[in-house]
Amino acid sequence: MTQPSPAVSPVLGTLFRSTSRRGFLTSTGIGALSLAALAACGGNSSSSTPSTSAAAPSSGPASVAPGTYKTLSLQLSWIKNIEFAGEYFADSKGYYTDAGFEKVDLVTGPVDSADTLVATGKVDVGLSAPDATARLISEQGADLVIIGSTFQKNPFCILSLEEGKPIRTVADLAGKTIGIQAGTNQSIFEGFLKANNVDASTFKTTVVQYEPTPLTEKKVDGFMAYTTNEPFIVKADGFTPVTLPFADNGLPLTAETFCVTKTALAENRDKFKAFLTAEIKGWNDAVADPEAGAKLAVNTYGKDLGLKLDGQVEQLKAQNELVVSADTKANGLFTLTDDYITKIIAAIAALGIDITAEDLFDMSLLKEIYAANPDLIKA
Fold this sequence. Notes:
Helix content: 25-40%
Distance between the termini: 25 Å
Low-confidence stretches: 1-60
Strand order of the largest sheet: 2-1-3-10-4
Largest sheet: 5 strands, mixed
Strand content: 5-15%
Mean pLDDT: 85
Number of helices: 16
Radius of gyration: 19 Å
Shape: globular
């Protein structure tokens, strides 16, 4: 969840922080997403599993000579679960190689902020979230820009139980006790309240961790969660999940955005276009074949996590609903329309961050890619 940004989680950037969630989610085989960057998840950073590329030639642009762009490092949000299925396809099917890279390192957490790692030159690309990147630009003058968005909708929600006091609408918050994780998630929740003109005095909040135990034990009525994560956990425990999605209720932030420095982009534009092209191919595959994506997570990239295939398939199918939208069907994966960007900027303003669309987004690379290769518009 916003765990860094989570896994919001920390996606969805700097939105998620957890101390024990990794072990819990790994044991259940469900794993977290991230809006920003997950901290204190345990374990050291690691690079990608050696590529099994050389596979079938990819569709789309002509291949570039291997090694043209040497190595590129991509900071993932947390652990190698199904959240990064598109990257697994891009690596295992040789799309990165076709794009001209000797190697693309899929770097895992724990990480406080993917944006900070990019800004300080520790990685080339970071998966983050618009609010996390915007805050670093606005408050610290970071040389950052977003060049694409994997998720078209953020997965934040208030999770409740049919067997308890279900929260289906914003109005249903009244009189309830809501569990919110400390830190960035609190800021996002406050932005959600502002966007819906909700008086915080009409309900109670309490600080919780990222495991939904307080909800299933009825210590809280609602729990800030990811639609692609905790609902499956409580369902596996025999409860009926009810979700109130933030994205559909006044806070239309995207997630899993590709963050780079403006300087690097100016100096290596073709390199980042090649990277995005490989990513598009990988995510087209992830959307088309969730079971194959889940097998890559379970048997190869996340083999040491003890992930369960059926749970990973279920999660990827739910995740793909955030990746694909009417806009991406028309314009291609990772793209954001001008109208949507305007809404995102307004949502970020609700979080107390002042930034312009021009300072935060550069969608020109994707426009050039799809203009030259319309056959990549598949998912």
